[in-house]
Every structure is written in structure tokens, then in C-alpha cells.
Amino acid sequence: MREDLEQEEQLAAAKAFWRANRLWILSLGWAILITVAGYQGWTAWQSHQGQKASGLLSALEQAVQDQDLDKATALGKTLAENHAGTDQHVLAAFRIAKAYAAGSQFEEAAQWLRPATLARDPGLAWVARLRLSAVLIDLDQLPQALAALEGSPPESFLAQVDDRRGDIHALLGQFDQALASWNKALTALGGEPPKSALADVVARKIASADAFKAQSAGKTQ
């Protein structure tokens, strides 16, 4: 019974840590992913896989900008039906999912992101996986969030993926696994001392987890 209570306390503390720090944890991550998606979007736009698909995406982005989510969703469904798997379809899913997430409609956001994880472009597919994992964290579907990150991402995504895996392990109370993932992420980012804003964030999480583990160990002795 004591062990069960301690595990529950650790899980509660881990969730409290995530929720207290989620803004600075996720804000940087979203900024990085938006940059990646923007680059991929430019590549998609330049390639002109289909003028009609590009036109639909342009109209959808305008609808999102106008805060007309119903219109954006209708355009997104048309893209999904007629241009499934194209970069334009995936980028449309990103735009709609972000709008739903901004309104705390996380289940709707997840529904749009799941098909995007099957994108033909590996980079876009992993952006979708990372975004889906964040939404599933908000839904408190932690095993599913971890499952969304299964597999081997491209090298350019290793740090972000291991960082997010660490977050999920911490929320599950699995601090050894969390530290292992965060340390892998920090190594991928160049190691100590932190050489970037994301590396600094990861280093702070490692320090916080080490301190929490030490505090928990002291309570059990």
C-alpha cells in the first residue's frame, strides 16, 4: 500500500511539474516545429504537386486567419478526400489541428493529426507525430502519446523526439526513462554546456528531475 501511495504521489508530482512548466516547455517546441513545417510548406508550395490542392490550402489558410474554422474544416475535408497524403493535405491538417488546440478542443485536433502522421514526407510525418503527442498529453492519454513517437525519426528530429519522450516518461512517473531520454536529447543537441535554447530547456528538465528524485529518495529513507 505504501509503495502504491508513493507511486501515486510521484505521478501527481510529475503531472504538476508538466502543467506548471508546460508553457515554456511546449512554446519553444511548437516554435521549432512551426519553423520546420514552414520550410516543408515552402517546399510543397514550390513543387506544385497540384494547383487545385495548393489553391485549397491557400483558401484554408485564409479561413483560419479569418477565424472561420467551419470553412477551414470543410476545405480540409475536401483536401483529405481528393488529395490525401499530399504535402498540402498534411499542412492543412496542421493548420486546423493548431486552431482546435488553441481552443482546447484537443480530441478534434488529434483527429486531424492522426492521418498526417502517414505523410509521404518523413519530416512532415514526424512533425505530425510530435504535435499529436502534445495533444495526447493534454488529453492525459500518456501511453498513446508515447506510442505516437515509436520508431526511428530522421536525424534532424532526434533531439525533439527524445525530449518529448522524456516528458511523457516523467508524466508517467518513470523518471529513470525520462532522464535517459532527456540525456539522449541533450547529447543530440551538442551536450553540456547547452548550446541552444532547446538544449537549455532540456538541461533544466534534467536538473529538475534529478532534484525531484533526490527529494523522493530522502522521503522514503
Task: Explain the overall architecture.
There is one protein chain. The chain is mainly alpha-helical and 221 residues long. The chain has one domain: Serine Threonine Protein Phosphatase 5, Tetratricopeptide repeat, CATH 1.25.40. It has helices at residues 2-47, 51-65, 69-82, 87-102, 106-116, 122-138, 142-147, 158-171, 175-188, 197-220. α1 (2-47) runs antiparallel to α8 and α6 (122-138) packs parallel to α8 (158-171). Helices cover 80% and strands 0% of the residues. It contains 10 helices and no strands. The model is unreliable at 1-11 (pLDDT under 50). The longest helix is centred in the N-terminal third of the chain and has 46 residues, at 2-47.
Layout of SSEs?
Elements: H1 2-47, H2 51-65, H3 69-82, H4 87-102, H5 106-116, H6 122-138, H7 142-147, H8 158-171, H9 175-188, H10 197-220
Essential attributes:
single chain, 221 residues, mainly alpha, Serine Threonine Protein Phosphatase 5, Tetratricopeptide repeat, 10 helices, elongated
Radius of gyration: 19 Å
The helix tally amounts to 10
Structural class: mainly alpha
Uncertain segments are 1-11
- Which word captures the global form? elongated
Head-to-tail CA distance between termini: 16 Å
**CATH superfamily annotation:** Tetratricopeptide repeat domain
Summarize the amount of helix as a percent range. Answer: over 70%
- Please state the average pLDDT score: 80
Q: Strand fraction band?
A: under 5%
CATH architecture assignment name:
Alpha Horseshoe
Count of folded domains: 1
Please outline the major beta sheet.
none
Please identify the top-level CATH class. Answer: Mainly Alpha
Number of extended strands: 0
The string of secondary-structure elements, in order, is HHHHHHHHHH
What is the fold named in CATH at topology level? Serine Threonine Protein Phosphatase 5, Tetratricopeptide repeat
